[in-house]
Every structure is written in C-alpha cells, then in structure tokens.
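Incident log, entry 3
Record: D-threo-aldose 1-dehydrogenase (339 residues)
Problem: checksum mismatch between cached and fresh output.
Input:
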Amino acid sequence: MSIKDKLPAGTVLGFGTAPLGNMFRNIPDAEAAATVDAAWQHGIRYFDTAPFYGAGLAELRLGDALAAHRRDDYVLSTKVGRVILDEVEDTSARDLGEKGGLFEFGRPNRMVNDYSADATLRSIDDSLKRLRTDRLDIVWVHDMAQDFYGDEWLAQFEIARKGAFRVLTRLREEGVIRAWGLGVNRVEPCELTLDLAEANPDGFLLAGRYTLLDHERALQRLMPGALAQNVEIVVGGPYSSGVLAGGTHFEYQQASPEILAKVERIRAIAARYGVPVKAAALRFSLAHPATAAVIPGASRPERIAEDQAALKVEIPADFWREMREQELVAANAPLPIDR
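Fresh output:
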C-alpha cells in the first residue's frame, strides 16, 4: 500500500482542481482550460478532482482538457460521497456546513450526500462519464468530517465504513482502481480509519491540516500512525486556502486577525532570507516522510509556473532554524534541514 507507487515517477507536485469548479468566483471556460494546459506543459501528471467541485463542473472541465492526452500518461483521482442529480437548486443557498457558499458559482445541479455502496458505484460511474475516461486510479471518500456534518459526522462515517470502504476495497482487489482512501479537511476521520483493522486504505488526501500554518494536530497521531502502517498522505491546500499565497482566505473563509498576524510573522522572516512563502509552504509539507505529494489548486495559468518555480527555490537552513526558534513551526515537525 503506497500512494507514491501509484503516482508517476518523481511526482511530488500535483494539481488540485477545486478552483475549476468555480470556487469563490465565476471562472471562464477558456481560463480553466488554459490552466489545465499550463499544468500539463509544466510536467504535472497527477490531477485530483471531485463531483463536489461545482456540482461536476471541475470534472467536466478536467475531462475535456485531458481528452487530448493518452490516458496512460497521467494519474487521476476523484471522490465519492456525493451524487449529482438532474434537479437544480439555488446555488447561493447550498448547505455546505462551515464552507458556506463555496461553490455558489458552480453548476445548479442538486447534490445529495450518500456514502452507501450503491451510491459509491453510481458516483464512480458518473465521474467516469464527466471525466471522459474508462478508469480511475485513486478514489477518495470525501468530507466525512465535522466541518460538513457537525455532530452527525460519525454516523456518516459508519455508513461509509459499511458502504464506500468495502466497495472501494473490492474494486482495488479486482484491479478496477489502484488505490483508495479518505479525502478530508480534518484529521479525526483519518485517525479513526487507521484504527479499523478491516479498512486498509492506501492513503489520505488531507487538505489544510499539514501546512506551514496549521500542522500541530496532524503531528500528534496521524502522521506517526500513517508512517507505521505505510499509509501515505497527499497534502491538499498547502497554502491554507490561499492565505499563504497572498490571499485572504483561511479554512475557505475570510482569515481571522490572529491568522493574518501569524502569516505576517512568517512573511517577515521569509523576506529577511529572500524566501518566497509559497516555496516554504511546499517544502514544509513535503518534508514529512509520510507525505507522498502536495496538490495546490489553481485557476489561472500563471499560478502553475509560480508553483513549479517555488519548488525549485533553495531555502537557507537559517530560515528553518528561525521558524523553529520563533515557534512558527512545531518543535517536532520534520524540516528540510533535518534530512
């Protein structure tokens, strides 16, 4: 069980397509297509998407963009847990838990949350059609956590345990998919899954929980537990919803004054050493031995080049030492200078 083995050789940077679902803004089709093309031209061969991203919009756009390429030349992951219906609704009024109107500019199709076996199979079939492909490499069980379900998240987890988990395990055994795991914004479902002897996931796509700005909880149990079981982590949202990349969002909402103040402290140290914050963010997430790859999102072509350039920046060891001394990274967090 290794996610790294399922990714193209040498891959540490993938492309998260949530922005292509019109997250936060109405993105023109041409701009979305140009962004995927830029990712391809810069050598990215791992693409992650989900039905939830704009009620299928991101999958449709990604499928159209990748149709020009050989299927064997890239790795594709999507998610299950939501089924898209033909019915329409007012997207500005969608109940997305703490995420509010995250995809209010997406397609108007109504989505239903369903982690059962039948819904999992239907979701996969629908995703294959939207993505214009005959197979999926990795399937993540999406958003079974408190940020979407509140106190009911454990009930949703139990449905997934009896439904999606078993279906995906069978599909992996049959060779229909190559790997499966959870795609979540919280560590608790991942920890619970590691404790289940029957689950045996290959990895987790963990968004926003192992970043330069927010990583303490993941360090406590999840990362050590994942290492012990050879379950690897794909880090989503390495820029913490954009606030580490010059934006104002954290946790998909406007960042609090406390978060903005912490970001400014990081920026001040980075400026002294001539380090782009993006570079520090990517290298931090990749420094943990449990991390298989990072997948920042992008909705503009130029952002892809920025990510690639950031990954190549040489960061002075003194930068990392000062970050640790100023307690801006946890004392036990692996850093590039520790290797």
